[in-house]
Amino acid sequence: MLNSVSLTGRLTRDVDLRYTQSGTAVGSFTLAVDRQFHSSNGERETDFISCVIWRKSAENFANFTKKGSLVGVEGRIQTRTYDNAQGQKVFVTEVIVENFALLESRQASQNSSKSQQTANASATATTNASQMAPNASRANTTDPFANNGQPLDISDDLPF
Fold first, then answer.
1. Burial zone of 51 (CB within 10 Å; 0-12 exposed, 13-18 middle, 19+ buried)
2. Is the pTM of this model over 0.85?
3. Across-strand partners of 6?
4. Alpha-carbon gap, residue 33 to 45, rounded angstroms
């Protein structure tokens, strides 16, 4: 039998780090994962997946991530049930995280959260500027292969 999950997505909120009575760290979070296809109205849908991480990994994960961080997680799916305060049986399905990877630098995640806050305000200005000068954003790059209108000089003294 195989129960293996691999997800890449962004945290919808900061990790909720708690400790059991015995002192074991446990973190819970929700991962927003985009679907591969677009819906009938042309928008990409997102799944919100509940995840749990344990012990030292939970502490590290909580210390190095925050809302909006891009992460990859590996683990397994687990289901459980409990009775709530009204006596109703509640079924829970969650990913138990065994490994994780931070997929962007701390600076990049800080910049992405700042840019998300200002994205709505600057979207119109960016659209207008890109319509007026479509190659203006490339002018400031140091990419030697950028399209600057000059032919590339490739010598013929290659070793093969």
1. buried
2. no
3. 74
4. 9
Predicted local distance difference test score (pLDDT) of residue 109:
59
* Per-residue model confidence (pLDDT) at position 137: 44
Residues in the chain: 160
Which residue numbers in the chain have pLDDT < 50? 118-140
DSSP state of 137: G
Q: Is 63 helix (H, G, I), strand (E, B) or coil?
A: helix
Provide φ and ψ at 150, rounded to 5°: -100, 145
CA torsion 35-39-43-46 (nearest 10°) is: -30
C-beta of residue 103 within 8 angstroms of C-beta of residue 8: yes
SS3 of 136, please? helix
Q: What per-residue confidence (pLDDT) applies to 53? A: 95
Q: Which of 62, 72, 79 is nearest to 26 (CA)?
A: 62
Phi/psi of residue 74, each to 5°?
Answer: -125, 145
Among 73, 42, 65, smallest CA distance to 113 is for 65
In DSSP terms, 90 is beta-bridged to: 82
